Amino acid sequence: MTKYVAKINALNADKISCNPHGIAEFTENGDILHIKVEMFDTPKNIEHWEHFHGFADGKDANVPTMAQDKNHDGFIDLPETEEVSGTTMVPLDDAPQDMNIPHDGYPVADSEGHYEYEIDVPLKDLQAKFKDAFGTDDLQLDKRVVYVHGVPKGLELPDTVGGCVMSYDANTTLPIAAGKIEKA
Fold it and tell me: CA-CA distance, 115 to 23, in Å (whole number)?
């Protein structure tokens, strides 16, 4: 059994009026990957996309800082994270092994901004999809970063905040928290 943990801390907190934080745990046990995420103080009563990001070539991914705010609008948006965190790899949704990123199968925060997400994923299925997408079946979890996304539709974001994915807008994709995954 191999366990990985990410302490998830807020991004863009001063702009979104909350301080999202929590923990993610990934446990490889035989042919199952058990994933558990618990978040606090997220924007309330909305769905929060969550994923792990990384580089296909195995380069170490890191959590962004304000240095990634290349357009100086005060937000670290999704495109600005790619330089240090790589691309979106695996969704932490209702079926991570399907690697279906843009859809509505993610956790929803309650009226206190809290949610818990927990799932057992068939590791072989996830590794096969991962290999199709990234050329390797090695998830290299200790080289990845967990992201939590999403602010209410009513929160006005400047036009400079990027992140449109298909029909999903920047309010859906804005990173609100991130944490480096480390081997426990």
Answer: 11
Per-residue pLDDT tens digits for 132-171 = 999 999 999 999 999 999 999 999 998 889 766 656 788 9
131: enclosing H helix or E strand: helix 123-134
> Average per-residue pLDDT in the chain?
95
Q: Exposed (0-12), middle (13-18) or buried (19+): which is 53, by Cβ within 10 Å?
A: buried
Q: Which helix (H) or strand (E) holds 178?
A: strand 175-183
Helix (H) or strand (E) holding 148, with range, is strand 145-149
Decide: helix, strand or coil at residue 52. strand
> What span, in angstroms and rounded, lies between the C-alpha atoms of 47 and 139?
25
Starting at the earlier edge strand, list the strands of the sheet with 32-40: 87-91, 50-54, 145-149, 175-183, 2-10, 21-29, 32-40, 115-122
CA distance 62 to 73: 21
C-beta of residue 184 within 8 angstroms of C-beta of residue 4: yes
Region 20-26: what's the mean pLDDT?
98
